[in-house]
Amino acid sequence: MSPNYIRSFSEGCLRPPTVIGQFHTLFFGSIRMFFLGVLGFAVYGNEALHFSCDPDKREVNLFCYNQFRPITPQVFWALQLVIVLVPGAFFHLYAACKSIKQEDILQKSSYTGFYIFSVFLRIVLEVVAFWLQIQLFGFKVNVIYMCDVGALDKKFNITRCMVPEHFEKTIFLIAMYTFTVITVILCVAEIFEISCRRLGFLKTQ
């Protein structure tokens, strides 16, 4: 791929054809990623080390932690961010290969339809991620986790485990849910902005 294609692709990703799309890129690329990268590591970075069960043995702690966290929140949210970026990246790669200028995307119906589809796909992926987050993490992190250790041939099948910094994790969960809702609202608003521009209610850039 030539340098011109790379430049067009990067400009498309950073400067979408709509005002709300540009705000979404700023929100998504800076605030959300910073929140996850910096604060997420601070909250969840040492969780496995401080997760303790009764009896406090390494094999029990590891077994119960894997049961408590089938996937770590940082990995899940990082995958969510990457997957949600894919539809827009594909569109801007297509636009770069076809030498489509950003200001022309809202002028031609086929380009506009393709772009709206990429935004709609982002909405679907965010909603699916929202649902998966509920299934995996719920809305609240309890201080006590009841772990089934029957597979370890222990005397008791259920043991109590202490979850470190449960209140901070609950706040972080709510924040990530909020970010998902905000991005979905921005995507819906972007489709509305495109519709208004196509109908002539807003001046096209």
- Please outline the major beta sheet: 3 strands, antiparallel
CATH topology: de novo design (two linked rop proteins)
Query: What structural class do you assign from the helix and strand content?
Result: mainly alpha
The gross shape turns out to be elongated
Low-confidence stretches: none
Topology as H/E string?
HHHEHHHEEH
CATH class placement? Mainly Alpha
- Beta strand count: 3
Subunit structure: A connexon is composed of a hexamer of connexins.
InterPro entries: Connexin, Connexin_CCC, Connexin_N, Connexin_N_sf
Protein name: Gap junction epsilon-1 protein
Keywords: Cell membrane, Disulfide bond, Membrane, Transmembrane, Transmembrane helix, Transport
